[in-house]
Design goal:
Blueprint (H helix, E strand, L loop, with lengths): L2 H19 L4 E4 H7 L8 E6 L4 H10 L3 E3 L6 E6 L2 E6 L1 E2 L2 E2 L2 H5 L2 E5 L2 E5 L2 H10 L8 H11 L5 H7 L4 H12 L23
Parallel strand pairs: 2-5
Antiparallel strand pairs: 1-2, 3-4, 4-5, 6-7, 8-9
Helix pairs in contact: 1-3, 2-5, 5-6, 5-7
Amino acid sequence: MSEDRAALQDALRLTAVALEDAGIPFALVGGYAAWARGAPEPSHDADFAVREQDVPRAREAIAAAGLELADPPENWLFKAYYQGALVDVLFRMVGEPVTEEMLAGSDVLEVLAVRMPVLSATDILSAKMRVLGEHYCDFTPLLGMARALREQVDWARVRDETAAYPYARAFLTLVHELDVSPLGPLTTGHRDGSGRPDRP
């Protein structure tokens, strides 16, 4: 294992333990949440979600665990570093606040020998699809994730949540054609359910 990968895994563990010990509701999200559910392991960063009201306590707990905090220009997360490895702590995802209901829908799984809440496969994939756009539209890693999580995903909910996002609809068309998803996107202009290009 490379030193960078080891530092990233240590950063993930330290953050999860710090939040758990502080009694802060949280969930592992993003690429490492998908990895915990069977997708390929990411190499860039680890992502956690907390409610915005818990951000001050989360910052305090994570800093006390030995990570260095940083405030990016974006107003929906803060960053923490450990030996050069990056942890993003999000309190809004795809423009929407992280809610108690979202966190409650997580499953407690063992990740790198630490038990922690992990976002549901449906929420992981839905969020990843909704951030696709003209500035970021790489389907390759997302396709691998969708293949790995396909049996865990509520595809009907993913379709409904991504109906207003054209790049997400394009991706859903792709995974439908590849038999990864049993459902295709809602047909434009038929959000009520008619005209859906689904397989029987």
